[in-house]
Design goal:
The complex is a heterodimer.
Chain A lengths: L2 E3 L2 H12 L2 H6 L8 E5 L11 E8 L2 E9 L9 E5 L1 H8 L5 H6 L4 E4 L2 H6 L1 H12 L3 E3 L4
Parallel strand pairs in A: 1-7, 2-5
Antiparallel strand pairs in A: 2-3, 3-4, 5-6
Chain B lengths: L6 E3 L7 H16 L3 H7 L1 E8 L4 E8 L3 E5 L7 E5 L1 H7 L16 H11 L4 E3 L5 H11 L3
Parallel strand pairs in B: 1-4, 2-5
Antiparallel strand pairs in B: 2-3, 3-4, 5-6
The chains are: A alpha/beta, B alpha/beta.
Chain lengths: 143, 144
């Protein structure tokens, strides 16, 4: 079974993938800084008429819940927000872009959040991405 | 002095994610650790940082009153740091000794950085001639 990305089903499957990732459990153990939101910028050519947000309620090395939302306003309450176009997220999920390199290259943008805290949890961020790559994904622009 | 007004992105640097990150990191570190404003005020010279695996580079033009962050290598750097994205990120986590602000030789990250330098994974050109700049930059970039 595959889950369309981005979607509510994919976001829920992502929660399970994060919680199954032992390395994330260790790297994120000290994380107490609130939810992290990943936003896929709207792209009508991919059928994304609005920004799509996936909010991960992460705490102490676990993902307690996820929420799939539409529109940037819906993720504003998250203390950390990372935004990228659909194609960039696709590369990240496929493992062809390292999240830290991606941020340095401007492919992923931290639009909200305390950067020093993110840097302290680089491995945790990387493991969130590794978890995303474990979700059986059907990309909306692929047949 | 205000550290917040003194770190600026040069025209075009807003398209360089690393330039944006370094600019934000320095600003936030000065807010979190006001004593770092003194380092910012005393930092002088041109520092190039090349992230080899990400294929991005920036130049910090340090004018004493502040820092302009440029996209790419601009002018002739006094100090050049070349390393991978992992090592550059790790450098921001270097432990500092309280009060003196020198890298803590007992800190695990400091030791990893020293090892990476010995192994050539981090290469710094011009450090001996610009030791005060290197030290101030290390303090400014460290989140500790």
């Amino acid at each position: 079974m595959t889950f369309p990305f981005p979607s509510e089903e994919w976001t829920h499957a992502y929660k399970d993938a994060v919680n199954a990732n032992e390395r994330y459990r260790v790297a994120g153990k000290e994380w107490t800084f609130g939810p992290v939101a990943f936003v896929v910028s709207k792209d009508p050519s991919k059928g994304l008429e609005d920004d799509a947000g996936m909010i991960l309620d992460v705490e102490g090395g676990q993902c307690r819940g996820t929420t799939f939302v539409h529109g940037l306003a819906a993720v504003e309450s998250a203390p950390f927000i990372i935004v990228a176009p659909y194609e960039r997220w696709k590369e990240v999920i496929n493992g062809s872009v390292d999240p830290i390199q991606g941020m340095m290259q401007g492919k992923l943008k931290l639009t909200k959040g305390h950067l020093p805290t993110m840097l302290r949890f680089v491995e945790s961020s990387r493991q969130l991405v590794v978890s995303a790559s474990k979700v059986p994904t059907k990309f909306v622009d692929e047949a | 002095m205000s550290g917040l007004r003194s770190v600026e992105l040069a025209p075009g640097a807003d398209q360089n994610g690393f330039a944006v990150m370094i600019s934000e990191l320095v600003k936030q570190n000065v807010i979190d650790h006001p004593e770092k404003a003194r380092d910012l005020a005393r930092l002088r010279g041109r520092v190039a940082i090349v992230v080899e695996d990400a294929r991005v580079a920036i130049t910090l033009d340090c004018r004493g009153a502040g820092v302009d962050v440029h996209n790419g290598i601009v002018g002739i750097p006094d100090l050049t740091i070349r390393a991978s994205s992992d090592e550059i990120t790790r450098m921001s986590l270097i432990e500092l000794l309280p009060r003196v602000g020198l890298p803590d030789p007992r800190g695990p990250v400091t030791r990893e950085i020293a090892k990476a330098s010995r192994e050539g994974k981090i290469r710094v050109f011009g450090a001996l001639a610009n030791a005060p700049t290197m030290l101030r930059l290390t303090r400014l970039l460290s989140v500790n």
